Amino acid sequence: MARTNNFNDLLFFIAVAREHSFTRAAAQLGVSQSALSHSVRALEARLGVRLLTRTTRSVSATEAGERLLQSVPSHFDDIEAELAAVAEFRDKAAGSIRITSTDYATRTILLPRLAPVLRDYPQIRVEIINDYGLADIVAERYDIGVRHGDQVAKDMIAARIGPDLQMAIVGAPTYLHGRQAPMTPQDLMMHNCINLRLPTHDAFYVWELEKDGRAIQVRVEGQYAFNGAYEILDAALAGMGLAYVPTDLAEPYVASGRLRRVMEDWYPRVPGLHVYYASRRQSSRAMQLVVEALRYRPEQA
């Protein structure tokens, strides 16, 4: 508070010294003459020197007052210029945007949709950290998070960036050869299933299955576990076991015969991907452009 008072008192002194009048300075600043006089006297008392010579007809700066009048205003001008420059960041398409995402979301949505934005706005920088943990974006200083709609905290601003997803269970013909393909969730216990490691709870992702309106969760076991969807897909292609991945990720390999679907009547749909962030009031122009570029539009499906 003392520092704020010092700044106000200096600004009041400058106005009086330049106008050579408490009356004109008070009108310029929109304060009373008594408040202005009290402020200048408080500044003189703190400094221990007289800054203004007052007569019935005029006000003029003393030698000490002239020194302040010559040096201080330029510093305030510098401060105003810096504040104006910082304020421009809100409207200027520039700055760094930190995003926590997953490898699947990054490859299928973020990279293709952000490429044109970054090409058109070279002053925007984007840092993407792939992590299947449920990061606290405020505590970990992310600007944006990307997760499925049911994983977004209620106090966040969210925008859909993709349609609801269907999951699939797939395996390579080399893995399924000589084995009975699973037909029910219980059958998965007899198979080598490839797990996804979740860092948030130090646990494996639970396979969510659904049939005829009945939803169940299955904790599978296997020799392999990874922390990314593409490593899981690669492991399945290599014949290491069954993988639980988004259908669109597996489809090209199913079409080419490198993977086969199993338990197709148990495939669930999961909420689509969303971006989320803490507050609209903190949204810079760069962040607005990024969110708008990622926003889902049905024609993109």
What features would you describe in this structure?
- With 301 residues, the protein is an alpha+beta fold.
- The protein contains 9 helices and 16 strands.
- It has a 5-stranded mixed β-sheet, with helices on one face. Strands 7, 13, 14 and 15 form a 4-stranded antiparallel β-sheet that branches. A 3-stranded mixed β-sheet has the order 9-8-12, covered by helices on one side.
- The longest helix has 29 residues, at 63-91.
- The chain is rod-shaped and about 110 Å long.
- The two termini are 56 Å apart.
- The mean pLDDT is 89.
List keywords for this structure.
301 residues, alpha+beta, 5-stranded mixed β-sheet, 4-stranded antiparallel β-sheet, 9 helices, 40% helix, rod-shaped
Question: What is the fold's blueprint, element by element?
Answer:
Elements (H helix, E strand, L loop, with lengths): L1 H18 L2 H8 L3 H15 L4 E3 L4 E3 L1 H29 L3 E7 L1 H18 L3 E7 L13 E5 L8 E4 L4 E7 L1 H4 L18 E4 L4 E2 L2 E5 L2 E5 L6 E2 L2 H9 L5 E4 H9 L4 E3 L6 E2 L2 E5 L7 H10 L7
Parallel strand pairs: 3-4, 3-5, 8-12
Antiparallel strand pairs: 1-2, 5-16, 6-16, 7-13, 7-14, 7-15, 8-9, 10-11
Helix pairs in contact: 1-2, 1-3, 1-4, 5-9
